Amino acid sequence: MQSFKICATAIIAVLIFSGCAQKGNQGDENLTIDSVVFTRTGLFLKMSEPVSIQKVVLSKDGRILVTHSPGTAGQALIDLAWCNNTKYDLEVVTDKASLAMPVYAPEKPSPVKIAEIPLEDLEKKEMEYLYYAWRGAQARFSPDGAFIGVGSKGGYVYLVRVSSKKIVWKHKIPEGRVSKVAFTNDGKLIAAEESRDGNVYCFDVNSGDLLWTYRSANDFDMQGFHPKTMGDRFPNYPLVCWGLCVDAKSNVYVMIRHNLEKTVNGRRKSMTTALVCRLNTQNGEPVWRFPINTSAWGLILSRDGRFVFAEIGFAKEAVLSVLDTRSGTPLWQYTFTSPAKGPRSRWGTGFNGAISPDGRYVAINQTYPSTTFLFDNTKSIESGRPELLWKNQFLKTLDVGGIPIGTSSINIELTDTELIFSTYRAQATGRSTSPTAVPAMHPDADTLFVYDFNGNLKWKWKIGDGTWNSEGIISTDGRYLVLPIGVVPSNALADPEGMGVYVFELSRPGGASAKLDWFHHTEGFAYKGDISPDGKTIVVLEGPFDVDPDPLKEDIRGKHRLIILS
């Protein structure tokens, strides 16, 4: 892949330069500087032995730029605003020796793997694309960046300390999967599950004690439920928390989806409803509830904690309800409808959405027909009705041999100036949605798009054929975009080397190639990630994955683990 080659070249260059003669070795003659890597935010240094690094001095043209006393063993990460294609002088003082050498900054930064933290083993049936794509768990940093909360497919909640790169504590839920995690500002870790009870848990970060549990099953009519499976592969539980958000005041907001099959006139009928509610952080009791009479698949909270809305799954009418977080009442609403007739009309419609960091805009990607809407949220709240700025069908349907070929977005994110989304594989929208029914690849499939708020395309990047990206994570300052990537094995063009994580620096001038910082390849399916509040550290959840679509063959790649990158 193009990005992988770029990264490999940068790493090789850095390692060649770091192999320059090491001067001024005073002490242990066997001790050397093993590698020096220029990262997004500084310089990573690794010694040949786990010695205590007492001081690191970096100079340029005889002028000292950085003096750092890490006190760490064997390796150190030093903050540095370095310039590309520039020579620096490095001095390292350890408890065994002092070393000095020149180092050369490359054109672009490179990733550094800080740690790999093993998670629980997964069963064979869990090592598949649909399991990761639709039931991926989550990893999130705490507000101060000191901890990482992990929700796992095997039903565990983990707390990882960033400084030690070790699991502090873990908790096993009684049944189901941990679907979401989030931290409060007052030292709590919230975790939600997919299960029969639909529990939301609150843990004390320091002790791991369970402080309270909210059982969402109490808010739904659970009579008549018929358990089922997705293709006889894994359980499809009746209650799933597909939305969990926490604001700066530690208020907790959840969106629970209820899957129900009832017998009506002797026939089973599938029904789906959802509920958005705000929970009291002290005891887990609902402060308010907002029912949704259809499917939902996500929850979006404004950065200032004033507005929240649910993303809606497929329905005849998908209603956007922007709620006041104080009362749970709609501030304004907009209804999306699907064509009564035509390709995929039986699916209905749905949408993904985002709120800009400053709260001014709400952007929606309607899934069918694939259309992007931009609303002025400020004016909509003032008038009590939707103030639509524009709508645009960026993803066009193409006719290939009489078969309409389309693609659709699967996520959307906003900065204060840009609208960002990526697309799913090509689909034959007029007949079967199976990839085998597609006579040609849609040129916009498996692609990252970035538009300005006037609807003008700024840049795009081909992520790779047959890839899956369910979320884009933007750093708090809007500088970096992180994309975890997996592959769809049934796509003949899907390349396992394409699994991993992309990092783009959005503020850098130029097009996609200029903005791409690096691509880090993971052996297995990279399905979720996060970036620390200070933008320095990135985490990726990797799962073992059978890259051979033949059910009678196995080609398992990767492990179930949390990867920490700089």
TrEMBL record:
It comes from the Bacteria. PROSITE patterns: PROKAR_LIPOPROTEIN. Keywords: Signal. Pfam families: ANAPC4_WD40 (PF12894). Gene3D superfamilies: YVTN repeat-like/Quinoprotein amine dehydrogenase. Residues 1-23 form the signal peptide. InterPro entries: Apc4-like_WD40_dom, PQQ_b-propeller_rpt, Quinoprotein_ADH-like_sf, WD40/YVTN_repeat-like_dom_sf. Residues 140-218 form the Anaphase-promoting complex subunit 4-like WD40 domain. This is Dehydrogenase. It comes from Desulfosarcina ovata subsp. ovata.
